[in-house]
Write a structure and sequence with these properties.
329 residues, Porin, 16-stranded antiparallel barrel, 3 helices, 54% strand, globular
């Protein structure tokens, strides 16, 4: 009888502990067979004049959360880029292994505070205005156009960051982040304000720093985004104004997603950057187009096909074709 009581007691304690904390392993694997025509215009993804296998920003994520009681919680997230086509990670080329995100966080009814490495608020907001979510496809709008050549102190992320995300209030969410340079890089500060209520999504964000190369001038970017879900189609757009090394740049994108039947999704964009070559004084515009179709075989597995073209002033157009599979876990 005593053993039974002890067993029941230990089981109850274990169940309570399991309810209070959790650790999850998840991720997304996305690979294409792709071809490019070998054009001279720079473009994300496959550009060579042959068929190849590409990874589209696959990820491995380890995350956890603990209930601290009283509405408070603590947690963490570690996310790494995975090169499924070669089995590589960013650490193979000298970058950090947990290069996507590595944060510890503390939250409650007041919002969430996090510390570590993460996308800046402006980069994160721009990502959600891209129909491809910057997945590494050649068809995506991409950071260069949507950030108008601006980079933070760690490209599109910041290290040594402390950030805050407010609770949603009447559709509004405020995000703030600051990165300490620690005498190696410059400080990086930024924030965003989004409105997300029903079919309407709007946002404005800014960021300022001395950039990835620690430029002598203070660089900055301001971005406006928006989308509206009509059910049959969800148009979206972004407009960015930046200043890099005292030179002003502007970029814009118009995109959409549209469901086709119960399992299909059509997406596309048309985007422009007024000057993509920051190494020259003369402005050289970049125009980009992307079109894609995704078919969901299940909640975790998608098949897709993409077409894209990018044309830079004074250069030949780069065109790509991609066919691939995506699996989440």
């Amino acid at each position: 009888m005593k053993r039974s009581i002890l067993f029941v007691g230990l089981t109850a304690i274990a169940a309570a502990a399991a309810a209070q904390s959790s650790v999850n392993i998840s991720g997304n694997l996305k690979v294409t067979v792709a071809n490019g025509n070998g054009g001279t215009t720079p473009i994300d993804g496959q550009t060579a004049n042959h068929w190849g296998v590409n990874d589209l920003s696959s990820a491995l994520i380890v995350s956890g959360k603990e209930d601290l009681g009283g509405g408070l919680y603590a947690g963490f997230e570690l996310a790494s880029f995975v090169g499924v086509d070669t089995g590589s990670s960013w650490s193979d080329s000298g970058g950090p292994f947990w290069s996507r995100r590595s944060v510890v966080k503390f939250g409650g009814s007041f919002g969430e505070i996090y510390a570590g490495r993460s996308l800046t608020p402006s980069q994160l907001m721009a990502l959600f205005a891209d129909p491809w979510y910057w997945d590494g496809s050649a068809a995506q709008v991409g950071w260069q156009i949507q950030q108008a050549n601006y980079t933070s102190t760690s490209f599109i992320r910041t290290n040594n960051t402390v950030g805050y995300v407010s609770p949603k209030f009447n559709g509004f969410t405020l995000s703030l982040a600051g990165s300490a340079g620690e005498k190696v890089k410059s400080k990086d500060i930024g924030g965003s304000l989004t409105y997300d209520n029903g079919p309407l999504w709007l946002g404005v964000a800014f960021d300022q720093s001395h950039g990835f190369f620690n430029d002598p001038t203070q660089n900055s970017t301001t971005i406006l985004v928006g989308a509206y879900d009509f059910g049959v189609i969800r148009p979206m757009g972004s407009y960015t104004s930046s200043k890099v090394n005292n030179v002003s740049y502007k970029g814009w994108s118009l995109g959409f997603t549209a469901p086709l039947g119960p399992n299909g999704l059509l997406k596309g964009h048309y985007s422009h950057l007024n000057d993509y070559d920051t190494s020259t004084v003369a402005a050289e515009g970049l125009t980009k187009f992307g079109l894609g179709y995704q078919y969901s075989m299940s909640k975790r597995t998608n098949l897709f096909a993409h077409l894209s073209q990018a044309k830079g002033q004074g250069q030949s157009a780069t065109r790509t074709t991609e066919f691939g599979i995506e699996h989440g876990f």
